[in-house]
Amino acid sequence: MQIDVTRDVFRLAQVFTISRGSRTEAKVLTVRINEGGVTGWGECVPYARYDETLESVTAEIEGLSGNLTRAALYDLLPAGAARNAVDCAIWDLEAKRAGCRVWDLAGLPAPKPEITAYTLSLDTPEAMQAQAEKHAHRPLLKIKLGTPDDMPRLEAVRRGAPQAKIIVDANEGWSAAVYADLAPHLVRLGVALVEQPLPAGEDEALIGMARPVPVCADESCHDRASLPKLKGKYDVVNIKLDKTGGLTEALALRDAARAQGYGIMVGCMIGSSLAMAPATLVAQGAMVTDLDGPLLLAEDRDNALIFDAAGVHPPRPELWG
Questions:
Q1: Which of 38, 40, 220, 298 could anchor a disulfide with 11, C-beta 3.0 to 4.6 Å?
Q2: pLDDT at position 262, please?
Q3: Pick from 223, 230, 50, 218: which is nearest to 142 by CA?
Q4: Strand order across the 165-169 sheet
Q5: What is the pLDDT of residue 19?
């Protein structure tokens, strides 16, 4: 079994800004695992918020050796980007060797398209209203907020897209006082979900606080080990494969979270169709699907995922799985 890691860069269609900063390109790692002339591949997006860099994640992957299995990988690497790319590559390799689709291997029904959110970058109210008007035809818009001056932005987006369902991602940018002040306005403006309003290390303040709009754990939820600390704070969990460490744990987290009464959101970092492909399996029946990474790119992989009025479609075998 041979493992190769390469760096790939995909230009964004426009500058993308959240409360932590801006970017013009997506830098990803592509992992290829070859065994017996068959190659499986996967993609990950190292994320500085979790102390990951392209160099550190590459080193983790290159430190692996031997004939890897998904079960063994769980003990060799922690949850995170490195394990994600390798885990997804093993799934792809296994499906190709078996001559079937990944969902057959996993014992899952064949996936169907899921409506996905489209993310509006953080900007001035005027620019965000213009973005909203341009994408008002989309059924679900996600707004990046997380500053002390968010109300004008939210009002502007609602004016620009009066019929769209809206979810808000604060990226840990609010305090408890700011969130409590904004909550009634979120209801008034028809916001359906709020992602991670408070910093992960300060979310104890959510216990006992009124949540008129469902609150989703993103930075506070990585894998199944995160679930005990979420009780009483959150209504929904955001499952991202770069946090769970791959499809294997993502499916397990989804089942465990549902069993504990949480709604499911399936999200992504900004990556190519290869990164989104495994997540389409996890997104089946989710409360919110947010797999719009490829829609934000100016370029993508060959045999890219199909996005249309029905949503994001499962991958073709030429791409993954």
A1: 298
A2: 98
A3: 218
A4: 118-120, 140-144, 165-169, 191-195, 215-217, 236-239, 263-266, 288-289
A5: 67
- 145 neighbors 193 (Cβ within 8 angstroms): no
- Token pair of 210 as six digits: 């009124």
Classify residue 156 by its DSSP letter. Answer: H
Burial 94-117 (b: 16+ CB within 10 A, else e): bbbeeeebbbeebeeeebebbbbb
Structure tokens at 317: 């075998």
Global pTM?
0.95
**What are the tens digits of pLDDT across the range 161-200?**
999 999 999 989 999 999 998 999 999 999 999 999 999 9
Question: In the numeric block, which tokens belong to residue 319?
Answer: 């791409």
Contact criterion met (CB below 8 Å) for 125 and 131: no
Neighbours of 126 (CB within 10 A): 12
- Comparing CA positions, the residue from 81, 79, 110 lying closest to residue 252 is 79
Query: Does position 308 have pLDDT exceeding 80, yes or no?
Result: yes
Residue with tokens 């001035």: 124
Closest C-alpha among 105, 107, 104, 62 to residue 86: 62
Residues with catalytic roles = 144, 240
* 3-class secondary structure, 313: coil
Cβ atoms of 193 and 227 within 8 Å: the answer is: no
The residue with greater pLDDT, 136 or 16, is 136
